[in-house]
Batch of 2 targets.
Target 1
Amino acid sequence: MINAEDGNSKARRAAHTIPSKRFRLATLGAAVLLVTGCANESVSPMGAASAVDPMAAAAMAASRPADETAVVNFRQEEHGPGVVEVSWEPPTYTSERLPLRDYQVRVDWEKWRSIPATASRERFTGVDGRRYRHEIRARFGDADNGFNGKKSTIYATAAGSAPGAPDAPQDLKSKLLGNDNVRLTWKVADTGGEAHRWEIEIRSGVWVSTGGDRPRFTYGPHRAGVTRSYKVRGANSHGTGPVTIIEVTREDLSSTPPGVVQNFTWTPGSRNNEYILSWDRPANFDSDDPITAYRIYVSDNCALNAYLQPYRPSGSQVSISISVFVGFGAGEQKDFAIRATNSAGTGACQTATRG
């Protein structure tokens, strides 16, 4: 148990292990906080649901400068070897309808985790003598109608001997994207020096740099039918660390465009000129060659001179519903049509029915 003073009163705080094995954490604030478990995010209960409309929440967020939603004076406190402590003051943004809900924090690009709005500092013990990337953002309102404040970032340095070059990246994963690209992601090792940048071998003897410390890299083209090994290593002023290797295969495509979009309907929206369009993806969806875009037309025959901005789905969405605005009265009968596209081509036209 760690004892600490907060203002003129003493509060107890308990250390616990966060997802990185590197740290033991204690969170301080105006109230006593006992933190347990290793969840990446734990959101405090909010009680009764807010009556704030999502559009009103967005409007209120947009009405204030972004800097007002950021924490104030995010800084590192001075401590001895093996300790890093960061502190902050609450944002200047205030709203009775969208009060400060909590903070989200993360270290070295790990997953965001939630801490109470009463917190004002975090201490990490047993750390190596190097820099650590700390990020924090405030959240306002409730889970349904709130918004995230502006993110703040600092690099805090722990006193002590530097551990040298970075250790090998951990948990290296790949994701095939629909535009012939591949995205690599990994976790920062719990030991070793700080990676100022990451280097990736995209083919034998050819290395490229991310130019920064974010553990993510997108490369292309990685075409269908190709298997390729990627090597990833960290680098800093001490040199380059050991590599982690992943083999990625993109299967041959069937060269089959998407089928007809299913269950395409429209309904009038609540605002003037608004229409709600809903549909399901084609029945022949191929996860190795996913839908890259849906083209929506204000016509019943997919006329090229009457299409809206393409809708680009996230991942492998099955059912989609969006709001569009067309220059006619709300609820007026209107023709809409849609076609799905992947790397093999564009599917057949499907006309919407009124839902």
Target 2
Amino acid sequence: MEVNAYMAHKDKASWFVNDRVHTDGKMYAATPFDPLFLMLAVLERCPSIETSFHRRDQILSCESCPALGRTLGALVADFSPLCERKGKEAVGDDSSLWRLDEARVVAWLKTKVEAVVAAMALVSAAAVSGFRSSSARNKKRKRSDELAGFAVALVSDYVSETWAAKLSEAVTGVTTSGDRAAAAKKAKTSASSGAATDADIAPLEDYSKGFKKSSSTASAASKMTPAQKRLSQTNLKG
């Protein structure tokens, strides 16, 4: 499980729970976490893992993170989503040989992106159910692109810069460059803020058509009293 703590305000925040007030304004969210993300980090630190096959025990006993390797040994039995396996031994057997496979890793990361997009699209669909128009369809396509960028940025937080760039290229066709944190922040802000622009709120039709503007004379006449109207019709020239 992955646990995150959120606080809306740094200084003042509290929660009302039943009949008590909790001054700690943090909200904790626990979500399932795929240990293969950690396994990928271990595989990256294993020498020559992309060029030669290694036994399971060799991978898990990596010198750079031995404690993590021992923990993952109990959590991950199958490396096939990330690695190519050599031999016909049963999965989990220490005699199996594994080699990191870029195509498998990218395909596995894409499934994570697709899961995020599907979850967010489901929420968006529930919010606008029953609304159909050409502009809505165009916005839906634009929204799908935004969700894909958001999902890539979200998944990229759990992998190295190298895999983040390969994932971005595979999903969006664009290779990430520069500071990934700034790019991720921009993508998340664009997808989640929902701020309206001038183009979004501009009317599609001119509803003032068909309405005639009244002249100053007609306006003045409409404001005259009956006595003033009779006086205006009187011949004052004699």
